[in-house]
Amino acid sequence: MDNQSIAEVFEQMAELLEFKGENPFRIRAYHNGAKAILDLDEPVAQILEDPSRKLSDVPGIGKTLVDKITVLVATGSLPQLLELQEQFPASVLAMARVPGLGAKKAARLHQELGIDNLAELKTACETDQVSGLKGFGKKSQQTILDGLAIAQAAAQRKKWVNADGWVARLRSHLSSCDAIERMEFAGSYRRGRETCGDLDILVVADPAAAAMDHLEAFPPRKETILRGDTKISIRVDEAFQVDMRVVAADQFGAALQYFTGSQAHNVRVRSMAKAQGLKVNEYGVFREDDPEHSIAGGEEQEVYAAIGLPWVPPELREDRLEFDWAKSGDPFDLIELKDICSDLHMHTTATDGEATIGDMADAAIARGLTAIAITDHSQRVAMARGLDPQRLREQWARIDQLRPQYEGRLTILKGIECDILEGGGMDLPDDVLAEADWVLASVHYGQRQSREQITDRILGAIANPHVTAIAHPTGRLINRREAYQVDIDAVFQAAAETSTLLELNANPSRLDLHEVHCQTASRRYNIPIVINTDAHSIDGLDVMQYGILQARRAGLQKQHVANARSWDAMKPLMGKYR
DNA sequence: GCCGTTTTCGGCCCGACTGTTTTCAGTCG
Questions:
Q1: Residue A356 CB closer than 7 angstroms to strand B?
Q2: Which class in CATH covers the domain with range A337-577?
Q3: What region holds the Helix-hairpin-helix DNA-binding motif class domain (predicted)?
Q4: Distance from residue A334 (CA) to nucleotide B17 (C1'), in Å?
Q5: Nucleotide B4 C1' to residue A256 CA (A)
């Protein structure tokens, strides 16, 4: 059982225990345990097997969870979980995810009215059975009915790039509000998470009501979910929630810190504050003995400084590595878009791209790049008219012709995105690959094969001396397709041994490697990461920014990113050039 | 269930808003 599966078991335990009305701290312990395992940079089984190490040394994992993990690794299932699932089937749990309902209320509906699923819940509301229950009223009943209607749509978070589109529209709309003096988008959007469940807007405004009125006048608004003196939530689109909080100017930093999260990061920040006799909330930092006067709060930096921390980049605020990093005294200095020198994955009209080599080269120069690799598909990708050896060599001859025009301005590499075939092996013969400057290997077909098969295929590609990097190593498409089954640690191990680079594909639907894998590959295995756009058009080159955001979340600095160097400086990183 | 420069018990981050309550529990972030 891999880390992700174990983490999922603990998340399910937490959800079920909450349903049962268990001690909230015990529930949190399961959440924390799940997170701790997910953030580990190696399989838990590996730690269990090593007699010189203790799994209970991992913060958040105590004796009980170690026992449960041991059972999970040995048997693949957990008796306690099965027991709870029998008591509360998944259809019952789904009720707790209806907006307005939580575990407690959902459990009562199940226990007192015998409601087992969403369909029965709907009927119960429509036949007025719910409003008679103690603690429920007509309004609660209507809230549930409304919640049921949007529960489906709300199940999916928006990709960051789509959330960014809403941010642009909201920014533009709110900028015409005279009452708003300062504005920032916080939450998972600011942290650059690959998906966003909602948007959090923080404003300084006078009067506060004017800012809220203005938000309510946002044309795509579907409804106002709630509105108080300082806080308003509206719904746009099918089920996308936008929250706004109005704070005073001298509270803005504290509020921004608070609403940027993550929750886990904030829990740590406040615990640290508490240990120092301080209290941190969204209004400022306060001494325990003087809760009236804030000692910090106007800017985020002050809040962190008050508890002895440097300002933490939002992308790192996940309670993953930022606190140890801060303690070490090393500056964060995360990778930035301007550090990128080259883009080594793009397609042209030769296969499924929309622009020619020359177009792409000119566009790359306009974006400040000094090298690109032309990496069209290989022959197996027939749908995209993938290149056979002859057409590939013709393309390379064309690159030879073009190179003099770009001398001193842009290095155009002869590349290929070569498929890793279903039966193993590369889609082009070695003598062809040997002529390339840059060979990406990737899996497009047979993604539903077994973990062993796919892992073997990728390890085979890594063992090929001509392969310089593995493109989109896990094949996932956010919100659309799960990653294929692969022993990612074996891939990292092999890549490290052969000096094969790994790609962080910047396409906002891929972002593959995802951040935790990317962090592991970089920090634990010292594998240089190459961030590429996989552009199929000139505009496609602009997705680099999303890859940078993801790389920052993985804690990558300039020196961890291969293409934050010139092409010549990159060569020593690769086995092919040694 | 975890954890310890307040150590093996007794804590565990903090507040806004809503609905159904007469002082607060539940939900949400």
A1: no
A2: alpha beta
A3: 53-72, 93-112, 128-147
A4: 38
A5: 32
Tell me the fold of A264-328.
Beta Polymerase; domain 3 (3.30.210)
pLDDT at A191: 96
Among protein residues, the one whose C-alpha sits closest to the C1' atom of B6 is A275
Instruction: Enter the tokens of residue A364.
Output: 């790359």
Coil, helix or strand at residue A130:
coil
Q: What are phi and psi of A114, to 5 degrees?
A: 70, 25
Report the alpha-carbon distance of residue A506 to residue A50 in Å, rounded. 36
Which pLDDT band, with edges at 50, 70 and 90, does A117 fall under? Answer: confident
Domains A158-247 and A264-328 share a fold: no
Q: Residue A112 CB: number of other CB atoms within 10 A?
A: 13
User: How far is A413 from A396, CA to CA, in rounded Å?
Assistant: 9
Segment A325-366, tens digit of pLDDT: 998 899 999 999 999 999 999 999 999 999 999 999 999 999
First to last CA, chain A: 38
The SS3 of residue A453 is helix
Contacts of A307 (CB under 8 A, 6+ apart): A269, A272, A273, A276, A278, A280, A285
Taking domain A158-247, whether its CATH number is 3.30.460.10 is answered by yes
pLDDT of residue A154: 59
Confidence of residue A155 (pLDDT cuts 50, 70, 90): low
Q: Is the CB of A137 under 7 A from strand B?
A: yes
pLDDT at A152: 62
> Is domain A3-154 in CATH 1.10.150.110, yes or no?
yes
Contacts of A47 (CB under 8 A, 6+ apart): A40, A53, A54, A55, A58
DSSP A511: -
> Which single residue is written with the structure tokens 């509906």?
A109
CB atoms within 10 A of CB A59: 10
Judged against a pLDDT cut of 70, whether residue A223 lies above it is answered with yes
pLDDT on residue A431: 95
Tokens of A467: 């392969």
Q: Which residue is nearest to nucleotide B14 (CA to C1')?
A: A281
User: Which residues from the 458-487 window of protein chain A have CB within 7 angstroms of nucleic acid chain B?
Assistant: none
pLDDT beyond 90 at A421: yes
Helix (H) or strand (E) holding A6: helix A3-19
